Amino acid sequence: MTTVDRPLTGETGAAELNVLARKQRSLARDALERLIRNKAAMLGLFLILLFGLVALLAPVIAPYEPTRPFDAQGKQNPSLMEPLWGNPKYVDPRFSLGTDQIGRDVLSRLIWGARVSMVVGFVPVALVFVIGVTLGMLAGYFGGRTDQLLMRLTDVIYAFPDLLFIIIIMATLRNHWLGEILGGLVLIFGAIAVVNWVGMARLVRGQVLSLKEKEYVEAARAIGASHARIMFRHLFPNALSPVIVAVAFGIPSAILAEATLSFLGVGVRPPTATWGSMMNEGYNVFSTTPWPVLLPAICISIVMLSFTFVGDGLRDALDPRMKL
Amino acid sequence: MTTYVIQRVLLVIPTLFFVALITFVLARAAPGSPFDRNEDRPLPPATIERLNSVYGLDKPIHEQFAVFLGNAVRFEFGSSLTRDRTVADIVMQEFPVSAQLGVQALLLALVVALPLGIISALRQNTAVDYGSLLFATVGTTIPSFVLAIFAIYVFAVNLHVLPVFGWGTPDKMVLPTVILSLGPMAFLTRITRASMLEAIRQDYVRTARAKGLREQTVIVVHAMKNAMIPVATVLGPFAAFLITGSFLIETVFSVPGLGREFVRSILGRDYPVIMAVFLLFAFLIAVANLTVDLVYGLLDPRIKVGR
Questions:
Q1: A161 near B CB under 8 A
Q2: In terms of Cα–Cα distance, which of B46, B159, B178 is closest to B111?
Q3: DSSP codes joined into one string, A256-321
Q4: What are phi and psi of A127, to 5 degrees?
Q5: Cα distance between residue A323 and residue A315, in whole Å
Q6: Would you call B143 and A294 a contact, using CB atoms and an 8 Å cutoff?
Q7: For residue A105, what are the β-bridge partners?
Q8: Quick one: DSSP state of residue B244?
């Protein structure tokens, strides 16, 4: 089998050299290839990009202002017009997906709602990432009092469902000036970040605790690398896999939190269009006029499923052993 | 073991204390008072002052908190600020409804998920398995209130087979119970399948087969017994799951339970009710987590809880 001692000459030698010189594949590239082969994840990614594009282009592609109620022009009151496939008697061709109870175009509201969902998905998770990774790394690396404090805090917050805490924060501070900025979005970002950063910090801390005992960290320290360099050049890249997975699942859970809050009536302030608030506003008349509630419900389902497919795909791709 | 139990029980107290503190501070930091809901016809200042002093809202905040904690221990939360009833009264009347809904949903989840998870593990990579995996993904991903909307649309609006609102008769309980159970059911199916898959590959299962035991005995007695340990550990978080689920499901289906009361008290800034219900939820979750931690130690002798 082994031909190591034989001098490398002629054809065989070149072939063998080729084997040795085979292009090295990085872990990231391997993971990426596994992800691309995952059909569900790719479908999810495609749908997310589609919704992202809709969100980005909302002002261009939405046919009407999402908050503008149409006046009763002509014979019919334009509130609760049915979608194009509905009863022709109550269809107005101007509104392809119908109108809601105060005469606003449902399609435009859905499009602008996508924008809120996408922003709510990414902003709080970015906050959680920055705060959680930084504090988790510091706590895991240096230990001591910061670490103690962090663990006590996580114990308290971990004991309760995130949503319960977020609802309490929203319910109490919604009428505060904090809750007025950007229709309440800023408070939602804050509430989600405040509740979720501890989970991220705990995850990173755990990773760092086990990684910092590894030989390469010792080696780095031996050649005089600074603490900051060890943390960001050596520990961070190696702790990244589970963090990426946590981020991938953090985004849909943030979107869901906003939808839930708005559905309960403590989320984004009216008249801003969000999928959750559309469901809240239409719910009273749901049994007779279902579409203003049903359509956002379908959008939420598609987005949630897409993110789950991508999250599952990422988890399987980054660490096949983590498969549940 | 005893030391561990005592430690774990004592840990519940600071946790509840902090939860109470956070809620209390937040509730009082909120602008506006429960007495200023009608902006066109505000109450006269003298009346508000009188109301504030009756409810103790004029005292310094730390005093209010001390009074509140003292009362909370005796489960006295005073009267609702918006309804003419005591908080204890409201909780007494509505808790049984929520408890019944939660227990029914949990039982339904167990009855469906355990067999489904086990069968799909035994028939890995067949249609049954893919079906149950699909169910597990959809059930854990799509939020309960969205599922509730779809269910109402299909069964109540289109087929007219089930009532949508209310509680009390069996037909009214079907939709809320089923929808609330779907999330836990899906999650439990996933865990059971994964855990069973691992168990049937173990050496002791092969040994049991080699001894010539009947397949049924091998699965039920040998594999399942060990596969149930991870399943038991996730039952703790289910208390939280069912509680957060309950306030959405109860609101959607107008079930007169504590979950709906919680949402209503939040929208109406009814502090005593918010605090009481939130603390009760916190207490229930803490007890559930504690129970599971302790039961885990009993189920799996390898885990030394005494440490």
A1: yes
A2: B178
A3: HHHHHHHHHTSSSPTTS--HHHHHHHHGGGTTT--HHHHHHHHHHHHHHHHHHHHHHHHHHHH-GG
A4: -60, -50
A5: 7
A6: no
A7: A99
A8: H
Among A133-147, A213-227, A298-312, B170-184, the range with the most confident prediction by mean pLDDT is A298-312
Residue A4 confidence class, pLDDT cut points 50, 70, 90: very low
Lowest mean per-residue pLDDT among A20-29, A93-102, A151-160, B280-289:
A20-29
Tell me the three state secondary structure of residue B107.
helix
Q: Is B234 on the interface with A (CB under 8 A)?
A: no
List Cβ neighbours of B144 (8 Å cut-off, separation of 6 or more).
B179, B180, B182, B183, B245, B248, B249
pLDDT digit string, tens, across residues B118-139: 999 888 888 989 999 889 988 8
Residue A104 CA to residue A67 CA, distance in Å, equals 7
- Residues in B 113-132 with any Cβ partner in A closer than 8 A: none
Contact residues, chain A, for B276 at CB < 8 Å: none
First to last CA, chain A: 38
pLDDT score for B43:
72
Q: Residue B93 and residue A289: Cα distance in Å, rounded?
A: 34
pLDDT for position A323: 44
CA distance A222 to B1: 44
Q: How far does the CA of residue A178 sit from the closest CA of chain B (Å)?
A: 11
Q: Which of A247, A245, A221, A243 is nearest to A233 (CA)?
A: A221
ipTM surpasses cut 0.85: no
Name the DSSP class of B83: S
* DSSP for B60-82, written as a single string: -HHHHHHHHHHHHHTT---B-SS
pLDDT tens string B49-86? 777 777 677 777 778 888 878 877 777 777 777 777 88
pLDDT tier at A251, thresholds 50, 70, 90 = very high
Strand partners of residue B79: B86
Q: What is the pLDDT of residue B186?
A: 92
* Cβ–Cβ below 8 Å for A308 and B152: no
The residue-averaged pLDDT of B276-281 equals 83
Check if the beta carbon of residue B114 is closer than 8 Å to that of residue B187: no
Say how far apart CA A124 and CA A96 lie, in whole Å.
Answer: 33
The minimum CA-CA distance between A15 and chain B, rounded to whole Å, is: 41
Torsion of CA A109, A113, A116, A121, to 10 degrees: 180
Q: Does B165 touch chain A (CB under 8 A)?
A: no
Peptide bond into A271 cis (omega under 30): yes
User: Residue A266: which of B143, B266, B285 has the nearest Cβ?
Assistant: B266
Terminal alpha carbon distance of chain B: 8
Distance CA B166, CA B256 (A): 7
Joined together, the tokens standing for residue A126 give 């970015």
CA distance A162 to A142: 28
Cα–Cα distances in angstroms (integers) from residue A311 to residues A31, A45, B135, in the given order: 13, 10, 17
Report CB contact under 8 Å: B30, A159.
Answer: no
What sign results for the dihedral spanned by CA atoms B7, B13, B18, B19? Answer: positive
Place of tokens 């309760």: A160
As a whole number of angstroms, the distance between CA A29 and CA A37 comes to 12
CB interface of B with A, residues 78-117, below 8 Å: none
DSSP code per residue over A209-274? HHHTTSHHHHHHHHTT--HHHIIIIIIHHHHHHHHHHHHHHHHHHHHHHHHHHHHHTSSSPTTS--
